[in-house]
């Protein structure tokens, strides 16, 4: 294997390292004007594309100015009561480690109002928050309320009462159209013969025939 081929892995590592270094940029605040009063730092920052990993370099006269990182509220009010970081060395380098907007002012009285204030927006996004798992809403299962079944009404058993139908006794009648004769118990019934007036035409004819036969027999 040639020495050129054996040097390929090392060259690849150096290339990656150089690429990573080239990705990060260093910006000198205010460029040639540096960090001082009377400079429009809003316009200067608007022309830049800041990323996480870049750095800001503040050049100023030591003891005459300061570099203080503050909150958005203090940046608007030009105060530095609760600084997030500060330096007065005259050559301050601030690494931009997190995305979002970073605010810087000079804490010397009147300097922030004179224009020594800088807001830079760093690109990139923080890791998205892990969504909290939610339990899906489920419709309640309808339940049938428990009810005690009604006891059916029962008709008490009764023994039917056997009744003998009432009948009126019939008085026997004597055949022959002679009417009825009431018989007193212990006496011989009196036989009543019907009169001629109570006989029909057939009966009269028969009766007359009998007498005719009797008379004829008597004449013999």
TrEMBL record:
Gene3D superfamilies: Cupredoxins - blue copper proteins
Region Disordered: start-end pairs: 123-179
Parts of the chain that traverse the membrane: 199-219
Signal peptide: 1-23
Positions of the Phytocyanin domain: 25-124
Keywords (A to Z) from UniProt: Glycoprotein, Membrane, Metal-binding, Signal, Transmembrane, Transmembrane helix
InterPro entries in alphabetical order: Cupredoxin, Phytocyanin-like, Phytocyanin_dom
SUPFAM superfamilies on file: Cupredoxins
Bias (Low complexity): 135-174
One Gene Ontology MF term: electron transfer activity
PROSITE patterns: PHYTOCYANIN
GO cellular component: plasma membrane
Cross-referenced PANTHER family: BLUE COPPER PROTEIN (PTHR33021), OS02G0758800 PROTEIN (PTHR33021:SF301)
UniProt protein name: Phytocyanin domain-containing protein
């Amino acid at each position: 294997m040639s020495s050129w081929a054996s040097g390929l892995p090392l060259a690849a590592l150096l290339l990656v390292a150089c690429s990573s270094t080239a990705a990060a940029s260093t910006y000198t605040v205010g460029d040639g004007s540096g960090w001082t009063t009377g400079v429009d730092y809003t316009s200067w920052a608007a022309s830049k594309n800041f990323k996480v990993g870049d750095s800001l370099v503040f050049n100023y006269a030591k003891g005459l100015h300061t570099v203080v990182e503050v909150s958005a509220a203090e940046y608007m009010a030009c105060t530095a009561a609760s600084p997030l970081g500060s330096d007065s060395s005259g050559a301050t380098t601030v690494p931009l480690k997190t995305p979002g907007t970073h605010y810087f002012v000079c804490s010397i009285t009147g300097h922030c109002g004179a224009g020594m204030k800088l807001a830079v927006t760093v690109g990139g996004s923080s890791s998205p928050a892990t969504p909290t798992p939610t339990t899906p809403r489920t419709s309640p299962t309808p339940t049938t309320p428990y009810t005690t079944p009604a006891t059916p009404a029962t008709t008490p058993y009764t023994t039917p009462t056997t009744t003998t139908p009432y009948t009126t006794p019939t008085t026997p009648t004597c055949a022959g159209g002679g009417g009825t004769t009431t018989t007193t118990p212990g006496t011989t019934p009196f036989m009543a013969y019907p009169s001629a007036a109570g006989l029909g035409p057939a009966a009269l004819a028969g009766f007359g025939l009998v007498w005719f036969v009797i008379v004829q027999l008597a004449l013999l």
